[in-house]
Amino acid sequence: MKSLRNKLCLVTGAASGIGRATAQQLVAEGARLCLTDIDQTSLDTVAQELEEKGGQVLFHRAFDVSDPDAVQTFADAIHKKHHSVDMVMNIAGISTWGTVENLELKHWRQIIDVNLLGPIHIIHAFLPPMIEAGRGGHLVNVSSAAGLFGLPWHAAYSASKFGLRGISEVLRFDLRQHGIGVSLVCPGAVDTGLVKTLNVIGVDRNDPDVKALTGRFQRHAKPPEHAANKIIAGVKKNRYWIFTSFDIRLGVFAQRFCPPLYEAAMKWLSRMVFSVYKKNDSSSPR
After folding, report:
1. Does 111 have pLDDT greater than 50?
2. Fewer CB in 10 Å around end: N or C, the chain?
3. Domain for residue 203, yes or no?
4. What is the 3-state secondary structure (H, E, C) of 254-267?
5. What CATH number did the domain enclosing 157 receive?
6. DSSP H helical ranges for 66-186
7. Would you state the pLDDT for residue 283?
8. How far apart are alpha carbons 173 and 180 in whole angstroms?
9. Helical axes 17-28 vs 224-236, angle rounded to 10°
10. pLDDT tens digits for 138-190?
11. Are strands 180-186 and 241-243 parallel, antiparallel or unpaired?
12. φ and ψ at 201, to 5 degrees?
């Protein structure tokens, strides 16, 4: 996969954020694309934009990756014409945060369905034909900093992202015999649409302190194009770990080699966000 020219690449979550930026980067690399997202209108717009730039968008269809039948139907349509894809990129995802006393089971289920079972459905539908084709290929799974660290309010989100990390850790070895590389992407702060639509249970997003935290995140965040460039560069070098920002790499180093420093950082973050939560909790009507 040192060259992506003419490679058939599947990108989920392609209508916005990292998925869209990655699709644009793949077009620049000369890849052929199969795109999906849950947002039909935005996906149509992206496909049209890419084609106007000379990109080859062979398939694009809107559906929910948490629906295994929809995933399989899409895969069957692709395989009927092309037998298998060369690269699978699991980028689609949602984010819901909240303290454990505020999270309801519906929040846990939704995030597991989309962020963990969604990639599993894609892997189940697309990897066996890749293996059977015998041409090698690559699998990219986008996890998160929350798949590495104990970030506050991230229990449900981390459950999905740690799970995807575990799957990737197994497949990086299982798929080697088939010449299929695996990359686990752990982005740091990326300024995508999720920042504006993020669902924080039990917290008023219009609260000045919450807005201040959001603004601090966005000032620190990298654009999606930066993350996409890091992903494509990592795939070309067959890297397993792909970090999109230095602070995540530094956090991993502290976690492994200086646990007290990592624990101190997590405790500081927890105290900071807990103060925001308590303010919201005390001001909410009973």
Report:
1. yes
2. C
3. no
4. HHHHCHHHHHHHHH
5. 3.40.50.720
6. 68-82, 105-112, 118-133, 155-174
7. 46
8. 9
9. 50
10. 999 999 999 999 998 899 999 999 999 999 999 999 999 999 999 999 998 77
11. parallel
12. -70, 130
Q: Using CA atoms, how far apart are residues 217 and 198, in angstroms rounded to an integer?
A: 12
Contacts (Cβ under 8 Å, ≥6 apart) of 259? none
The closest of 236, 241, 239, 277 to 256, measured between CA atoms, is 241
Q: Please count the structural domains in the chain.
A: 1
Residue of 180, 183, 186 whose CA lies nearest to 85: 180
User: Is residue 259 domain-resident?
Assistant: no
CB 33, CB 23: distance < 8 Å: yes
User: Of the ranges 6-15, 18-27, 150-159, 276-285, which one carries the lowest mean pLDDT score?
Assistant: 276-285
pTM of the model: 0.90
Active-site residue, 157 included: yes
Per-residue pLDDT tens over the stretch 223-244: 899 999 999 999 999 999 999 9
Residue with token string 């699978």: 88
Percent of the chain whose predicted confidence (pLDDT) is above 90: 74
| Continuous segment of H or E residues that includes residue 280 | helix 259-283
Q: Which residues of 269-283 are buried (b: 16+ CB within 10 A; e: fewer)?
A: eeeebeebbebbeee
